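Operator note (shift B, R.M.): manual run for 3'(2'),5-bisphosphonucleoside 3'(2')-phosphohydrolase requested after the automated queue skipped it. Running by hand, logging everything below so the morning shift can see what happened. Input copied straight from the record, untouched. If output looks odd, do not overwrite the archive copy; leave it for review.
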Amino acid sequence: MNDVELAAAAARAAADVLLSLRTGTATGTALGDAGDAAAQRAIAALLAEHRPDDAVLSEEAADDHARLTADRVWIVDPLDGTKEYRAGDRHDWAVHVALWERRSGGRAGDAVGDATGGDLTVAAVGLPALGEVVVTDPAPVVPPVPDGPLRVAVSRSRAPEVSRAAAAALDGVLVPLGSAGYKTLAVVRGEADAYVHAGGMHQWDSAAPVAVARAAGLHTSRLDGSPLVYNAADTWLPDLVVCRPELAARVLAAVRPGA
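Run finished. Output pasted below as returned.
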């Protein structure tokens, strides 16, 4: 398998075990914990079999920092949106599998776009409840903007002020959705036109969805317009913007710190 085929196979393997567990007797926190662990095992087994020399950064595994000197690092979230997954009747959760590769002479954490840095090169995002895996190659095609107001994806539990600011700048509406990965894929799939996040997340929460969004031609950045950096020593990423490219200037003007 090439890298994108492996990413897709890993996402599907995780999806299979997650869906199987969801039909069993476990519920609530027990179901979420079982799903996290089983999806991690499924992905780790495939990566160990097919790319044993690559490093892995996963939400569900200890970070030994070997990735900081590695040329190839898989960034994985075996179950993004545990709360939605264990609800049983929601589809807005995901599986993330991305590959970061170092440019010649690069250092871990160098900014994307720096000639000596690294970047996300391959990704697959599984949407198990929908029976879909979206990959970077072939790149997804973003549907045209439908009639009606523009839509900004936002957390179901809280709407950060930057999301409201983006919606106001676009004369749009907020669309509550589940996991971070699903909200990013909602823009790719045409369910939303922008996703703006503040308050922090980790690299595994966005790496695969951002890679897919980039492949689809969408804008991705920090709130201040700077690049999203992956495989940095600190896994924390404070904020995120994903939107249709023609909306980027308006969104960034509204959400840029100090705006």
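Quick read of the result: The chain has two domains: 3-135, 151-255. The first helix runs from residue 3 to 22.
Leaving this for review. - R.M.
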